């Protein structure tokens, strides 16, 4: 079993839809949780950075962390074609900068 | 503010050769981490440097090495290249250890 599990998709939605992306993990030491967006031929871009459990909102993006279930989510509201990319979840423990990544979910938002 | 800069963007080598990749972090960032990205294995941590010292190393053979200079710039070296080393090598910088990491666009290494 991988340390971080993420459905690779692909996921296709119409413009304006709410997108839900999820990851599960097995290491209870993980305390910091990130979501990155990666466009083709580019490096990952940090979207959300959260610590421990709870919700964080930034514009159209909401990150949720449920440490009791070892489950994290990213919601994208009013999705746009420009949101079409691969979304990677990442996490690490409090004393180690070694991030563990999910496989990435490929999202396409159709006009 | 300039982002993380990686050079070169593309590189083609043959088996047995060695290669050096370069990373210039965001100004003011003192921590640099390296990752390998492949379609099969995804993003895997190679190593992390802070203040010219390697703080952490991933599960890669000794052919993979790195260093950091006093200006926080970092280089990564791979010796005796193998076909399986073909990948996108990504550098990420942060203000310090355990801070959010920001990635460059990577160096795509192809081994023939």
Structure, explained:
The complex is a heterodimer of chains A (111) and B (112). Chain A is mostly beta strands. Chain A has strands at 4-6, 11-14, 19-25, 30-38, 45-51, 54-58, 61-66, 71-76, 85-93, 100-101, 105-110. Chain B is an all-beta fold and 112 residues long. In chain B, the strands form 2 sheets. In chain B, strands 2, 4, 5, 6, 9, 10 and 11 form a 7-stranded mixed sheet that branches. Chain B has a 4-stranded antiparallel sheet with strand order 1-3-8-7, with no helix packed on it. In chain B, a hairpin with a 5-residue loop joins strand 7 (64-68) and strand 8. Chain B is globular and about 40 Å long. Chain A binds chain B through residues 32, 34, 36, 41-46, 49, 88, 90, 92, 94-104, and chain B through 4, 6, 31, 33, 35, 42-45, 48, 55-56, 58, 90, 94, 97-98, 100-106.
Poorly predicted ranges of chain A = none
* Mean of residue pLDDT values of chain A: 94
- Based on secondary structure, the structural category of chain A is mainly beta
Shape of chain A, please?
globular
End-to-end CA span of chain B: 37 Å
Distance between the termini of chain A: 37 Å
**So how many helices of chain B?**
0
Biggest beta sheet attributes of chain B: 7 strands, mixed
Which regions of chain B are unreliable across 5 or more consecutive residues at pLDDT < 50? Answer: none
Category by helix and strand content of chain B: mainly beta
Q: Report the major sheet of chain A.
A: 6 strands, mixed
Order of helical and strand elements of chain B: EEEEEEEEEEE
Gross geometry of chain B: globular
**How would you classify the quaternary structure?**
heterodimer
Rounded to an integer in angstroms, the radius of gyration calculated over CA atoms of chain B is 13 Å
């Amino acid at each position: 079993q991988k340390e971080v599990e993420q459905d690779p998709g692909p996921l296709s939605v119409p413009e304006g839809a709410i997108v839900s992306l999820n990851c599960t993990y097995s290491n209870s030491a993980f305390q910091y949780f990130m979501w990155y967006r990666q466009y083709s031929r580019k490096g990952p871009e940090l979207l959300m950075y959260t610590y421990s459990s709870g919700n964080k909102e930034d514009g159209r993006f909401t990150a949720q962390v449920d440490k009791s279930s070892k489950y994290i989510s990213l919601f994208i509201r009013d999705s746009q074609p420009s949101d079409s990319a691969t979304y990677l979840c990442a996490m690490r423990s409090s004393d180690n900068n070694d991030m563990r990544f999910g496989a990435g979910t490929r999202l396409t938002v159709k006009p | 503010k300039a982002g993380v800069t990686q050079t070169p963007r593309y590189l083609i080598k043959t088996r047995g050769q060695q290669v050096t990749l370069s990373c210039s972090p965001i100004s003011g960032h003192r921590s640099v981490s390296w990752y390998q990205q492949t379609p099969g294995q995804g993003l895997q941590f190679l190593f992390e440097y802070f203040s010219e010292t390697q703080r952490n190393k991933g599960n890669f053979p000794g052919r993979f090495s790195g260093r950091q200079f006093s200006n926080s710039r970092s280089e990564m070296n791979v010796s005796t290249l193998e076909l399986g080393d073909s990948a996108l090598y990504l550098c990420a910088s942060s203000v310090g250890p355990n801070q959010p990491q920001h990635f460059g666009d990577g160096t795509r290494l192809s081994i023939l």
